[in-house]
What we know:
The protein is α/β, with parallel strands linked by helices. The chain is built from twelve helices and eight strands. It has three domains: 228 residues, TIM Barrel; 27 residues, no CATH class; 31 residues.
Amino acid sequence: MKNTVTSLQQMKRDGEKISMLTCYDYSTARLIEESGINAILVGDSLGMTMMGYSDTLPVTVDDIIHHCASVSRGLKDTFLVADMPFMSYQTSVYDAVKNAGRLIKEGHAQAVKLEGGATVVEQIRAIVNADIPVVAHIGLTPQSINAFGGFKVQGKNIDRALQIVEDAKAVEAAGAFMVTLECVPEELATLISNELTIPTIGIGAGNGCDGQVLVYQDMLGMFSGFKPKFVKHFANIGEEMKRAFKEYDAEVKSKAFPAEEHNFKIDEEVMREVRRVTSKKGLSLAGEDERKMA
């Protein structure tokens, strides 16, 4: 069944959990599509996972469009959300609508996601009024990493917890059809999920949310070193990839690859004529070179 704004909202009403993963390329999109995942987020996390930055701030609208368009070609039924990167919507309501429109028109997304609560309701309202579905994002908002002083759990004191609740209600009232809750205590996220009529998608926010999202490289164990508390490795693809790369390297250097079964054949008579002509041309060229040197 095709996933849409309406079907995702119906899943919340039916008590059915929503699955979402990040994705940034066509081939991975095909695999996710075939796995039955409900939604894909082309996140500004691509700045870290695909471009090697230490945070999401350098990512541009053009970066998101490039990856989103690639992902869209691999999808039929999976719902596609595109992140609005840093400074693509904070500057003005006009910029927010214009850039959201580009993500839909050029990136072929079906919805856009932007970070912030009560501070961005005017942008959300204007984008929705342009008939573009919006996913809000509250709690830990990675584009605010400098203001937060790092990647930290949000809502652990009364003031901040109440602010996140108010942010959730504000983005719903502004017209967001879904909201992401990142790095929020489980009890607080559950309360918000019960208060809202729109679906909540958690990342580090517990099982009380209406759905979950993870960065696909994280859940496949493709990064060594730091592993966020909220990430589960569903497979260790990173180690398997390294094993395959090392085996390929060894076989190339030992001449074990390519083997006989990987090679294409040519008729021996054709090859014999190629050698004859090549040899003859080689002699004539050698003669010409000798004459030039003389």
